[in-house]
Amino acid sequence: xxxxxxxxxxxxxxxxxxxxxxxxxxxxxxxxxxxxxxxxxxxxxxxxxxxxxxxxxxxxxxxxxxxxxxxxxxxxxxxxxxxxxxxxxxxxxxxxxxxxxxxxxxxxxxxxxxxxxxxxxxxxxxxxxxxxxxxxxxxxxxxxxxxxxxxxxxxxxxxxxxxxxxxxxxxxxxxxxxxxxxxxxxxxxxxxxxxxxxxxxxxxxxxxxxxxxxxxxxxxxxxxxxxxxxxxxxxxxxxxxxxxxxxxx
Amino acid sequence: xxxxxxxxxxxxxxxxxxxxxxxxxxxxxxxxxxxxxxxxxxxxxxxxxxxxxxxxxxxxxxxxxxxxxxxxxxxxxxxxxxxxxxxxxxxxxxxxxxxxxxxxxxxxxxxxxxxxxxxxxxxxxxxxxxxxxxxxxxxxxxxxxxxxxxxxxxxxxxxxxxxxxxxxxxxxxxxxxxxxxxxxxxxxxxxxxxxxxxxxxxxxxxxxxxxxxxxxxxxxxxxx
Lengths: 249, 224
Known about the structure:
The structure holds 2 protein chains of 2 kinds.
Chain A: H1 2-8, H2 17-26, H3 32-46, E1 51-59, E2 65-67, E3 72-80, H4 81-87, E4 92-93, H5 103-114, E5 135-137, E6 140-142, E7 151-159, H6 171-192, H7 197-215, H8 223-230, H9 236-239
Parallel strand pairs in A: 1-4
Antiparallel strand pairs in A: 1-7, 2-6, 3-7, 5-6
Helix pairs in contact in A: 2-6, 3-6, 6-7
Chain B: H1 3-17, H2 28-48, E1 59-65, E2 67-70, E3 82-88, E4 99-103, E5 112-114, E6 133-140, E7 146-151, E8 161-166, H3 192-212
Helix pairs in contact in B: 1-2, 1-3, 2-3
């Protein structure tokens, strides 16, 4: 589902877009850093990240470890650099070697961790000339040590992030984040005794909940996607009268 | 109005109001000091009444030079930790967010501002733990200015100047800082409706005080 979002070009807004919505719609201002923390926390529930296809040319370390790109979603393939340049040259290139060890790299990983994002092995591990076998270990891919010092190509589907590592969001997500920020401001205001703040908490709580739900759904859903949604993955056993509903008897 | 004009207005009101009652002389310098004090308290009062938004009365200082200083305010005890540092006049801590902006002059880099020791928990923030932040000291240093220390700045080590936009406790104090050149003495910092309130308040106070003193009337020296 996520891959198709980019085709509709829905994920076009910077994560800070919610700050301007907050000002325009509700006339409120929030500390930028407070907003970013609230946004990452809320996006963890909202999900619906935008993804795109990347390729990264990464140098294998002496111990056979390959640091993963911090915006990794699904690994598509791990190949030699030569094959990667031929097979994946239309993909967006991501500079992992230049980022590893920098503040940006760790910040990006921190954000992904807090978004509750876990990466998938995908269809990797193909056999054949050019493909390299690997296994996943934390934030590294492990390959045979004879690759040490060489550059390999990692083709992967990655979450679209900005230069700081924050995910790029949709219009509906920006609206939801603004409402969530407004709710937080009202609660803080009420705690400090600000006039009228307490009476608005209920309104913003309801609004934020509704917009949060809406934000986790794409702008429109195609027939194919609806078909996918209804295509429940259930075993034959579960559907048959008087048969056990578990694999073990 | 300028500060001098405000002081003159009050003086004229009081002198006219007390004409024939008292011939007390007023010090314009003392009036100026009182105007500054009264303005701060008036702003707080009007803000509490919901008539003005204190957060809108901010002032900007550009090009504050950063130096490096030990965190300890005690000359005899060093903290062994030096950090990029600069000083500002005290901010108005009654405002919801006394410092609206602290960052590079071009606006590309901003600092999270802490007014208390909560900055110790910055490293546990969800998404911004590695971002730069600033701590504004709660007490004035020997020069009457407040120390501001910057942290988490490895990527911005070359930063030499910062810009700040804040609600200052006594905005006129900016005149006494090294950033004085940026501020003209032509217009008082508070909006005209606050100026009016301050003039009324002080005039009333002076007239009432001197009337209550019940001073002897001046002898009538007019000749028939």
